[in-house]
Sequence to fold (236 residues):
Amino acid sequence: MKWIVAENYGELSELAAEMVVGEMLTKQKRVNLAITAGTTPIGMYERLTTKVKGKNYLDHVHYYNFDEIPYKSGKQEGITLSDLRRLYFSPAAIAEEQIEILNEKNYQQHDAKIASDGGLDAIVLGIGTDGHYCGNLPGTTRFTDFTTEVPCDERLKKIIVGHFEDPAENPDSYVTLGPRSVMAAKHIILLASGVKKSEAMQRFYHGEVTEAFPASILKMHPNITVIVDKAAGKLI
Fold:
């Protein structure tokens, strides 16, 4: 496990952007990247946009959303893809043919598709205060799961309802890459910023590997880079 402590969020964002661009340039043939929405990577995407926009030599890079919370009505794209478009795909003018979509309709074929595409070269993840990553919240998936559908009980519905202006759109399930799908990536890049993530990172670094803290499995990956700022890493 490679551990990088950035001075602040700005440095974390720049380091992450540089690392992602590095992945893009490792080969001239197809590069497959799974990327995250959420708040932690906002700065990374701002910097990444300036580094990739208009660069036609990066047309070989394909992007995968690794989870999706659908609208119950199905009338529009899910929350994750919508956020990725807003944060990165649209500002960076990423072509539609470079975006590989995971949703509630195709999740059962998603692992086979990734494999046929050559596998994920890298996956960029955030971590929740409860140790979740992607849609792998405590009590939802097992370490042996591939891409899966997660039924939403009342606990989960309360967690995700804030994503919707209309609570009636809160779905009965969402889909996510499971731990086995994530661990199959060639390189994991894990980001954590702010004091609110410090206890989670302490548990990640020092704690046992347990499904009760889903991200704990990630430190078993043979090629994982963790980038934290000083606030998130202060308890390590």
Q: What stands out?
A: The longest strand covers residues 224-229. The chain has a mean pLDDT of 97. Residues 152 and 172 are 5 Å apart (CA to CA). Strands lie at 2-6, 31-35, 61-65, 67-68, 99-100, 122-126, 148-151, 173-176, 188-192, 224-229.
